[in-house]
Structures are given as structure tokens and as C-alpha cells.
Specification:
Layout lengths: L1 H9 L4 H5 L2 H14 L1 H19 L7 E5 L9 H7 L2 E6 L4 H7 L5 E5 L5 H6 L23 E5 L7 H11 L3 H22 L3 E14 L2 E7 L16 E8 L9 E12 H9 L3
Parallel strand pairs: 1-2, 1-4, 2-3, 4-5
Antiparallel strand pairs: 5-6, 5-8, 7-8
Helix pairs in contact: 1-3, 8-9
Length: 277
């Protein structure tokens, strides 16, 4: 905890990154991964290998975009850099040590911004509320990216806004669930319908509380949202992520996230859309 506290107050960040809790989340992830490296390892490795698998489907590997690049724990950066002419890593903030790692790759560029489009909407006086839906996703290079990866960020996209809107706008649980679902739906629609190349969606879907081998609780992280299947069913994969083994969050319970991975190929999506039923 002391290390996290020091990191928090010694990391220079824009005001909204601190005020909306993004810096706190990034630091918490960094320190938990260190503590639980053995538990997290299989999930991170599976994510990286799935992204590499998707690369093989890209006929012209020119531009790759990774959404939610975070601390690069689950990003196969060397593979991406070797395969693509340009790689864009997109997140709300890039930690100093991430910038240092990326500096060694001449064709990897960092893009900083909010891919939900909510901050941009707020500047225009269109802050989401129970009667005002969030804007469409705001994803850079969505049309010209040959590979677009949403990397373990879908269920986290609305979290910072919900936390803030609870305090400033009196959001209730139902309001937060609605905003989360709308943001996730817009993000998925962008990947499946708007992307110009191969899209990859990797996300946790359920949170399961375990006591030994017994399930004692389950939470749907997707709210009312359901993921479209891959354009080729053989690319639909699921695995478990032991995100918080006891006593990380509870003295006797392990928390496991169920993870789903999907690949959407633009040509196949277009063909499906025009095929008579």
C-alpha cells in the first residue's frame, strides 16, 4: 500500500486522469499483478497468444491499433512491431515506464484519449444522464486499421464516469448499469460494424466468487449486453482469469473472471450482411 501511495503522488498526470480515478486504477493493476503474477500469468499469456492468432488473418499488415493498452501486460508488443508498419497504442494515460518501453520501438506510437467519446460530449454540454445516452465510440484509425484490438477494457470503459456521476449527478445503480451497457454496445458496434479490417474483442464477461470448488456468487459484467459471435466460430474462445485469489479481496474467497475472445473479419461481416436468409 505504501508503494502505491508513493507512486500515486509522484506520477505527473493531467487533472482528469487523477480526478476520474484512472491513475489509481492503473497503479492498482500494476501492484496486484506483481503480487499475483502466478495467478494472472495464464490469462495474460492467453490474451497475447490470441492477438498473435488474429495477426495471421490480416492480409496486409500495415496499421495495428490496440485499445486499452494499459501497462502492456497483455499486449504482444514485439510481435506487433515486427509484423506491422505502424502500431498505435491507445489509452486514457500512458504510465512513464510504458513510455520508456515503447521508446525502443521505432514504429510504435502512443495515442492518448477517451475512446468512449464522453469527455468530448461533456465539452459540448452533452453530459450523459438517464435521459441523455452517451455518444458513439470515438476510436482513432478505425477505418484504416488493418488490425483493431479491444484488449480487456470493454467492461471498464464506463466505470470512471459512473463513479464520478454518482457523486456529481446522483446516479443510482440502475443509471450506472444503463450507462455501462450503452457504452459497451457502442464499443462493440464500432468493432463489428465500423472497423475497416480485422477486429479483436477480448473481455471479461462474468465475475465468479469461489469458496474452494464451490460457486458462492456470480455477477454478469456485461449487464444486458451480449457479444456477437466471431465471423468464424472457430475463433470464439473462453478462459478463466484468477483475478483475486484469497485473501486478495476476501479472506476465504477466490474471485475468477470468465473471459471471452472474438475475432470479426470485415469481409466476412459484409458478406453475412448481404446474404439472403
Amino acid at each position: 500500500m505504501i508503494g502505491e501511495f508513493i507512486r500515486y503522488w509522484t506520477t505527473p498526470v493531467p487533472a482528469r486522469v487523477r480526478n476520474y480515478g484512472y491513475l489509481k486504477r492503473l497503479i492498482a493493476i500494476e501492484f496486484r499483478e506483481r503480487r499475483r503474477r502466478a495467478a494472472w500469468g495464464p490469462h495474460l499469456a492467453h490474451t497475447r497468444s490470441y492477438i498473435v492468432k488474429a495477426m495471421d488473418l490480416v492480409p496486409r499488415p500495415r496499421t495495428a491499433v490496440v485499445l486499452g493498452s494499459g501497462l502492456l501486460l497483455d499486449v504482444p508488443l514485439e510481435d506487433l512491431s515486427e509484423r506491422f508498419e505502424t502500431v498505435y497504442l491507445v489509452d486514457i494515460f500512458h504510465m512513464p515506464h510504458v513510455r520508456k518501453v515503447v521508446h525502443a520501438f521505432h514504429n510504435v506510437k502512443l495515442l492518448t484519449g477517451d475512446i468512449t467519446g464522453i469527455f468530448a460530449a461533456m465539452k459540448e454540454g452533452k453530459t450523459p444522464d438517464p435521459r441523455t445516452p452517451p455518444p458513439p465510440a470515438l476510436i482513432p484509425h478505425i477505418r484504416d486499421a488493418d488490425l483493431l484490438v479491444s484488449c480487456n477494457c470493454l467492461t471498464q470503459l464506463a466505470g470512471a464516469f459512473n463513479d464520478r456521476f454518482r457523486k456529481t449527478q446522483g446516479f443510482a445503480d440502475a443509471d450506472c448499469d444503463q450507462l455501462s451497457a450503452q457504452v459497451m454496445e457502442h464499443h462493440i458496434a464500432a468493432l463489428v460494424k465500423d472497423a475497416g479490417g480485422v477486429s479483436v474483442l477480448i473481455t471479461d464477461t462474468q465475475r465468479v466468487a469461489m469458496r474452494g470448488s464451490d460457486i458462492v456468487g456470480r455477477k454478469d459484467l456485461l449487464k444486458t449486453v451480449r457479444l456477437p459471435h466471431s465471423t468464424n466460430p472457430k475463433f470464439d474462445e473462453t478462459w478463466e482469469w484468477l483475478i483475486a485469489p484469497a485473501p486478495e479481496e476476501h479472506p476465504t474467497r477466490d474471485y475468477v473472471h470468465m473471459v471471452s475472445a472474438r475475432i470479426y473479419e470485415r469481409a466476412a461481416v459484409a458478406e453475412t450482411a448481404t446474404t439472403p436468409t
